């Protein structure tokens, strides 16, 4: 329960401060899952039933298009991830969540967090904050692709998520930045 309480506290720090009582309620519904490197937390076609918090490790969300993989997001320690359409609508996901390292995830289950939010306003506000943060992250990524060069995108990743550059395979990083591995190599070679 102590780990769950620490995760609840971290979720609160990322959104809105909540009371000790609300933290304990939130901790009581968290689901701990360990997944090995290369295993999926969520498969394409499954319904996303949890908002994930990475306590340890690294995951990526990706999808297939024309038989090619495209990385949507990376999440490492302290990050929250969600397949937002699948989670909110409870429909099959087009995204896959894969562990790139041995990973420990604490999940906020869909039905339980909604029920808890209905009885506890603080949890409702925290839940809304998690969704808002996810939407903002998606918007920032789309703006990055529309407005930044390949060099600017890579430099942003270095600045904002240096752990990803150190830990994720270059092929996944290239996919995430919407460039070929060859372009990524050229961009990396130009960094002084």
From TrEMBL:
Q: Which CDD domains match?
A: CAP_ED (cd00038)
* Pfam families according to UniProt: cNMP_binding
Which regions form coiled coils? none
Q: Where is the Cyclic nucleotide-binding domain?
A: 34-116
- Record SUPFAM superfamilies: cAMP-binding domain-like
Q: What is this protein called?
A: Crp/Fnr family transcriptional regulator
Tell me which species this is from.
Answer: Parabacteroides faecalis
């Amino acid at each position: 329960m102590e780990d769950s309480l620490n995760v609840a506290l971290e979720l609160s720090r990322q959104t809105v401060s909540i009371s000790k009582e609300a933290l304990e309620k939130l901790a009581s519904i968290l689901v701990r899952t360990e997944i090995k490197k290369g295993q999926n937390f969520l498969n394409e076609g499954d319904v996303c039933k949890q908002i994930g918090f990475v306590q340890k490790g690294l995951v990526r969300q990706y999808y297939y298009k024309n038989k090619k993989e495209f990385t949507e997001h990376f999440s490492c320690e302290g990050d929250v991830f969600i397949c937002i359409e699948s989670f909110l609508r409870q429909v099959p996901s087009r995204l896959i969540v894969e562990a790139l390292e041995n990973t420990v995830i604490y999940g906020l289950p869909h039905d339980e967090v909604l029920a808890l939010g209905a009885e506890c306003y603080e949890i409702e506000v925290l839940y809304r904050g998690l969704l808002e943060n996810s939407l903002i992250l998606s918007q920032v990524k789309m703006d990055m692709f529309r407005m930044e060069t390949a060099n600017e995108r890579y430099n942003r990743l270095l600045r904002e998520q240096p752990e990803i550059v150190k830990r994720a395979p270059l092929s996944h990083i290239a996919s995430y930045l919407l460039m070929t591995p060859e372009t990524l190599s050229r961009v990396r070679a130009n960094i002084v």
